[in-house]
TrEMBL record:
Organism ancestry: Bacteria, Bacillati, Actinomycetota, Actinomycetes, Propionibacteriales
Alphabetized PROSITE patterns for the sequence: HTH_LUXR_1, HTH_LUXR_2, RESPONSE_REGULATORY
Keywords: DNA-binding, Phosphoprotein
Pfam families linked to this entry: GerE, Response_reg
Designated name of the protein: Response regulator
Domain HTH luxR-type: 147-212
The keyword Nucleotide-binding appears for this protein: no
Amino acid sequence: MTQPVRVLIADDHPIFRDGLASLLETQPDIVVVATAGDGAEAVGLATEFRPDVVVMDLQMPVLNGIDATRRIVEELPDARVLVFTMGEEDGTVLAAMRAGARGYLVKGASQDEVTRAISTVHAGGLVFGASLALRIAELLSGSVAPDRSAFPELTEREVEILDLIAAGKNNAQIAQALFLAPKTVRNNVSNILAKLHATDRAEVIIRARDAGLGGG
């Protein structure tokens, strides 16, 4: 007999979280092992219960869904993370995929869509909307992944931000895409300018694009 898929649900809205858990519990091939109200709790419960699939809201307190996804994937490589988003925001979804998510669903998806997506990622597949299929395929192929080798003096986070700067994003857009505070982005941009001995943002963009960043 096939073992049911063990699912952890992480969402800071109790009505949505409990409602989704109730819906999934009606499926004979799915068992909800735990629910979490924030990203930090999700990481802890994932480590404790070792679910097959984590259904993760992106916007949560304490620890956002992208950072929680990154930690869970690092600690539990076999776990599959499926993120929920309010809409197909380009940077947000790509940031989640970069963090290790195997797909996403827009909130409002039907019960059939949710259960099908859980089954797909559990089986090793990917789930994402057609509007982002090409970009995510490029991302996963590595063709637009930020190349750290060109800027060894920068941290991984700084390269990630540099990639978005090179793509023409302003600080507010970068903060939204990476779920960072605007002040954090400003500090990182200042560090990038200092480390690269660049006089202004335009010079950084030119150097980053010459190195292949910003093409995503």
